Amino acid sequence: TTSSRPSPLLLRDSISDNTLFVAAITITIITTIDVLLLPMASGRFGRLTLPGMLRSLAAWALLAAALCLSPNAKVEAAAAALVDAATKISFDDNLGGLPLFGVGCRRKGPIKVYSVGMYSDGKAKGSVSSVPKSNKVDALSTLRDSLKSSKVTTFLLKMNFKVGAEKMADAIAESVAPRTSDSGAVETLKRLILDGIAAKGAATPGTTLQFDCLVDGGVKVYVDGKEVGSAPGLCRAFVDVFLDDNGVSPAFRDSVVENCCEISSASTVVVATQTSQSHSHKRFLHRKSHLKLPNLPYAYNALQPVVSEKTLRAHHLKHNAKYIDTVNQLLNEGDAKLRGLSLVQIIKNVQISQNNPALYNNAAQCWNHRFYWKCMAGSGGGGEPTGLLAKTVRRDFGSFNNFRKEMETEAMKAFGSGWVWLGYNKQKGKLEVILTSGAGNPISDNITPVLAIDMWEHAYYLDYQERRIDYVNGFFDRLVNWKYAEKNLKHAMGKGFIPDMLHQVSHRGLPLVAGIFSANWAKQRVIHMLFRQS
């Protein structure tokens, strides 16, 4: 197993598009001066002086520091992931809000066909947390019984070796068939796998097959994130394929026992790295939590007439501040290990949402509000988006009007308090409108937020009472910060700081250097020609 290291949260918000151009041009100019102009002036063309070298190194060091804060670095800190030692294929620590139980390789002789990871709810994981690892048979038996009541248990298969569609379908069907008497359901499963893989010719390395074993007994099949269909009555048989005594991957069963058994209650609540920690890190975990109320990016009267100064002051100084104070209190009075988690880690942790709802809800509201404040602009907001965001909205919704209508419809569906989100689903590669109740956040389902509208009454009731649609219309007409939404979309799609920086350097910086060099070369030719003529 390997672990991912937590990284700073939301640092990308401090990096603007202008910074990309300024950084690229600054470094280009400094390098040009030190490498070309100063040596020319001193008659030592092509020789870099020591001060010039130091200035160039300092400039590139600043660029390296900026890249460390790029949106393409992991902004959302994550808990430990697992890597299959046999294939080096990694699995995220959670899938759709479900924690990872274990990973393993399916071998066929010397061939490593695929790696499999299992995800299910925290209750099932807790059922074996006190079972000794040495008692593997009882642990797996207890886990299989516990999974019967789980709403969904997901097996994610990642291909390591190319297998034809028919062979792959036969192999999985042959593993399920001895564990059920329903041959018709097995044939249905086989046909679904065959149809899903046949569309791309074969199950090539990198192909993912996802099987959701549902509480109603069915098994839903996905190929590369696209739903193919459902086979009824095979849930228990499919679970047994990997977890019973004759399971197809002994390495997978060992991994499940290793990661789920003999775990303390604190560890089951905090899905974190199980490696040894340094003394400094331990001291960090035991520090007091000091979350601070975020500053608004505009004045309290800047959102009028859509949101009055009175509403914004109460919303920010009373409600947002209360969430901050509550999170600090719960962290400082609770388990010290929880203090080492970021807001995103808390939101994505299924065990915390189930076992500590007060911490989960208040932490989610802290994150939601910090995001929401930036979704509005004190000036220049509203209207329609441009650039990449506009193109993606048209692609996924047909038109901006369709998108806005869907956002307004979902906002009106909110029963009581909640949030309406525009999010980017990386698995499907598209934008989606999501309605969450209470403090819900699409991060829990691995969807990256792009835009949010707060539908809690304290966000609009003083100004609009029951006329929520007027509040939503005002948000779109005058307030929405499309520039911020586009940054979030670029981050989600992997088109953030590093690609933009490379684009700026290659399309502006390098031509500038080439222009200066060419101009100097032309000047030297002219001088030589004049001397020759004289």
What does this structure look like?
- This protein has 534 residues and is an alpha+beta fold.
- It is 50% helix and 15% strand.
- It is built from 20 helices and 14 strands.
- It has a 7-stranded antiparallel beta sheet. Strands 13-12-14 form a 3-stranded antiparallel beta sheet, with helices on both faces.
- α11 packs antiparallel against α14.
- The chain is globular and about 95 Å long.
- The model is unreliable at 1-17, 70-80 and 264-286 (pLDDT under 50).
Brief summary:
With 534 residues, the chain is an alpha+beta fold. Helices cover 50% and strands 15% of the residues. The chain has helices at 17-41, 50-68, 122-126, 136-146, 165-176, 183-198, 235-243, 250-260, 265-269, 279-285, 309-333, 343-348, 350-355, 357-374, 387-397, 400-413, 461-464, 468-479, 482-493, 497-533, and strands at 82-83, 90-91, 94-95, 98-108, 111-119, 152-159, 163-164, 202-203, 208-214, 219-223, 226-231, 418-425, 430-437, 447-454.
Q: Count the strands?
A: 14
The low-pLDDT segments are: 1-17, 70-80, 264-286
Q: Calculate the mean pLDDT score and round it.
A: 82
The main sheet comes to: 7 strands, antiparallel
List descriptors:
alpha+beta, disordered N terminus, 534 residues, seven-stranded antiparallel sheet, three-stranded antiparallel sheet
Layout of strands and helices, then pairs:
Layout: H1 17-41, H2 50-68, E1 82-83, E2 90-91, E3 94-95, E4 98-108, E5 111-119, H3 122-126, H4 136-146, E6 152-159, E7 163-164, H5 165-176, H6 183-198, E8 202-203, E9 208-214, E10 219-223, E11 226-231, H7 235-243, H8 250-260, H9 265-269, H10 279-285, H11 309-333, H12 343-348, H13 350-355, H14 357-374, H15 387-397, H16 400-413, E12 418-425, E13 430-437, E14 447-454, H17 461-464, H18 468-479, H19 482-493, H20 497-533
Antiparallel strand pairs: 1-2, 3-4, 4-5, 5-6, 6-9, 7-8, 9-10, 10-11, 12-13, 12-14
Helix pairs in contact: 1-2, 1-20, 5-6, 11-14, 16-18
